[in-house]
Structures are given as C-alpha cells and as structure tokens.
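YM 10:42: Pyridine nucleotide-disulfide oxidoreductase sequence, as discussed on the call
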Amino acid sequence: MREIVIVGHGIAGLTAKDTLRRQGFDGHITIIGNDLHPPYSRPALSKAALSPTMDLSDTTLPPSSSLATQISETVVGLNTDSQFVTVASGDQYFYDGLVIANGTHARRFTDHEEEYTLRTRDDAQKLRARLQEQPAIIVVGGGPLGMEIASGATSLGCDVTLVHQGLPMCAQVGPVIAGFLAQKAVENGVKIVDALASSVTRSSAEQFTVELDNGREIYAPVVASAIGDSPNIQWLQDSDLLTDGKLVTDSRGRVTDNIVAAGDIACFNGIRTPIWTSAIEQAKTAAGGLLLGNEAPELSFQSYFWTDQFGVNVKVSGPIPHNGTPHIIEGSLESGSALLHWSESNSAASINYRIPVPRLHKLAKSLAPTA
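YM 10:58: structure's back
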C-alpha cells in the first residue's frame, strides 16, 4: 500500500491522516475536502458563532505537521474495481487504500435562505450576522445544537421559541440534567413548545409558518433547523459499499480489505455515533484497520461530549444516562454546580464545574461497580 486517499478533511479525516503517519505509513496521502476554511472544531461553532465575546477564528484547529496533498474539491464518484475517486472537476485519484470520512449534511425543511442550519463555518457566519439584527426566531429541535442556538440567540437579544417534542436534551443527558437545562432556558426567555414540527413553509415574504402536530401554527421571520443530519453518501450510490443505504463497517472500521470509514458518515460496527470524540477514536481505529487488518485493535473508548448553554457548562462521560437518579458527588443542582454519577451505567456528568476531562474519566472508572 503506497497511495492512500482520504475523503473528508474534518476531524475524522485529519485524525486518520495523522494516525497513518504515526503508525509508520510513509507512502503518499491525498486528502480531499470541499470546505475552503482551515480545519476547525465543529462543536465549537454553535458556541463561538453566537457568542457576543467570541470570534470564529477561535474554532480553528492547530496545524498538523504530517505530510499530505490537500485537494479542495467535491468528490462525486468512486470506482472500487479500478480503485480511483472522481471529483467534480473530472480529475481522478488512484488509491491502494481509501479512508471515507466526509461526514454529513444538515437536514432541513426548505431551501429558503432564512431557514438556517449550523454545520459549517460559513453556516455559522451567516447565522450570526442575521441574529445580530435581533429577529424573532423559531428553533426546531431541542438536542444540544438546537438548545445552543436558542441560547446564543437569546444572548444576542432575539425573541426565541424552541419547538421540541418532549423534554429538550432528555435523550442526550437524561431527565435530571435535561430538566435543569430546560429551566435555565425558560429563565432566559425561551418559549418551549412541546410538539413536533409537522412542516415549515415560507408563508409570505416576511415570515415562516411552522405547523405543529397538534394543529397549532406559529410564525417567525427566521427559522433555525436542528433536526439531525444525513450522511454524505451520494457519491457512493453506484458503488457496492452501501448496505441498506448505510455505510457499515466492522469493529476496525473496515468496509472492505482496503477501504475504511470513520466519523459521522459511518455506521461503525453497525452503529452511527455522530459525536466529535467518537469521530476521533473511530478514525484512529480505522487507520489501524487499514494498515494492519485483523492485527489492529478494535474500537474501544469511553464516550464523552459537552455542551454550553444559558450560562451552564455540561460535560458527560460514559454511556448516556437516560434514566435513574444520579448520586451527587460534589455540589448541588440548586447551586448550579454539581458533579453527578449514575452507578447503573457508570456515567459521570459535571454541571458548571470545570474539572479537567482526565479527572472526569478517572472518576467514572473509580466508581465502577466491582465484582
């Protein structure tokens, strides 16, 4: 294997490139991506873009020292027989090994420019510029991204309505922390509507109509959709790599003997986990799987993610604590600073208590039940 092509220069693609070099690959690496900005942290976008005190340059990642040829193009096709990738200009790039890590795109209701999504740095720039005009905005979706957009919009002086069926953030952090965050959202002026958005249409030149599943309609000039993502698999439709429309890998990231996948696009070991830390660990594993095959270690890591919203910082380590009452290790929810642990799932979470990530992982491990 002397020629490796990496499709995607987000964190999964960059991590795969660096891991290949660290593991001794001294051949040629070509990394292809269509984002013209220097590599940046996607999770930081919703914090920096909508904060009055932060700049988007704060999201830029440190430069990598590992060598690769960078191609700024959109990949449009793959021929697994001849082993080449085709880009929009018509150029083709041969590979011995291929890493697929070109992520996802945001789902949306319309193509109207006043419906905003937040996946790229350009998205963040556009949303920030519009919200600085302080329009009324409807945020559809109450996961981490939707709540962070709602938080940023309120800090910029917007009138914010958030539409989400059930308790926002509950699927990500469980009912205890989700209830705490929802209370903070309401205290900051967010109107939470417990419903499913059936449709979003641009009903006039001035506003959107958001139709809810209970028959109610609400209106605003701006909509931000945070309703999930779809893998960027269009260029793979004519390949033989998809299984029921999904890019499925084994536990080492392998799709075939010389093709691996990682990050948001991949159903890694059959499961898609669109989390920043997961993309990093998947890319490390997939790079090993490409070079070493069955000799490479399988994916094994402890999940971790964080969110900043309404003045509250939340970090979660370990399996998502859907249910159960946590043990309060330090502080209290009432004070807004607490360290929590769920013994049944061995998960730990901190709220507005800025402890280093390694300590959080160590704590979760130390509290694990023993046989």
